[in-house]
Amino acid sequence: xxxxxxxxxxxxxxxxxxxxxxxxxxxxxxxxSRTLSRSSGLDVSPATIRNIMADLEDAGLVASPHTxxxxxxxxxxxxxxxDSLIELQPLPRAEMAxxxxxxxxxxxxxxxxxxxxxxxxxxxxxxxxxxxxPRQADFPLRHIDFVALPDARVLVILVFSDNQVQNRxxxxxxxxGSRELEQAANYLNSHFAGLRVDDIRxxxxxxxxxxxxxxxxxxxxxxxLATASFAPPASGPAGPxxxxxxxxxxxxxxxxxxxxRLRELFEAFQQKNELLQLMEVCARAPGVRLFIGEESGFTxxxxxxxxxxxxxxxxxxxxxxxxxxxxxxxxxxVIPVVQATAGLLSDALNRAATTL
Length: 356
Description:
It comes from Rhodanobacter denitrificans. By secondary structure, the chain is of the alpha+beta class. The protein is built from 12 helices and 10 strands. The chain folds into 3 domains: 6-85, Orthogonal Bundle (Arc Repressor Mutant, subunit A); 93-134 and 240-354, Beta-Lactamase (2-Layer Sandwich), CATH 3.30.450; 138-229, 2-Layer Sandwich (Enolase-like, domain 1). Helix content is 47%, strand content 18%. The chain has a 5-stranded antiparallel sheet, with helices on both faces. Strands 4-5-6 form a 3-stranded antiparallel sheet. Strands 1-2 form a two-stranded antiparallel ribbon. Helix 8 (197-211) runs antiparallel to helix 9 (217-229). The termini are far apart. 34% of the residues are buried.
């Protein structure tokens, strides 16, 4: 009896399992003992191969579909294959050049950049490309400006380090003149440009506590403006989002052809809640994360594999990029594509941050 752990397989069993999975990933068909005998290069009898296959099946690493005498790998077998039976290589130079060429080189908003990344991942893998979009408050503030409006309202113009511009209209207790607004903007820009919104709030609160009742009129107006300007928006997504590209690619894979399965999968893409939860878990872990079949914990993804890698800037993790496809995917190619994309995205965001 073979145990399911990779180090418990002897050399012959490992070779046969690797051969079976490699063949299955190419054509998606059950692999028979005769094919394994020809392809593995092992000098063993067909009976020996059948015995090893039976042990691998008992260990839960392969299964026999009722329509064929051949065997296919289980998610457990695919996990063992990825963890210990393949050697990942760096992304080939030509594909790395394609990634570098097709990612926008010049100034762009982070959301535009991430949308391009999800589309590029989908195009390179022929699966669905997914990228989480961080909160805007996760990016440092580059500049703030105020414009007076009637009825004690102020137009707030926020420019972040990722070139994203947000316009907000805030209501104040009393109207402020153009000079007061200019002084407040100058104070915030000189003291807090380069900080994130949460840090600005904390600094202002500390300033208020330090000055107490001696709070001067300029600082009082600035605090009121900043409190209103940096409050979470009353409508729209205050938290992170996830972008998905190339969902229709998945309709071309026979493993996902069941209409009910596809409906559940596309509903998950549309609702995004579960997908976002999974991607946020991936973002918190360094390096590449891989979920095969039921490992994701979400029923809609049971027939899929999810490959992700985290990205960030200035030592801060901002999100994750990845692909979703059938469990029958070329892991040795897809994993380096996702890993390289995350690295290039981080480089692009770091370059943008240095221009602050």
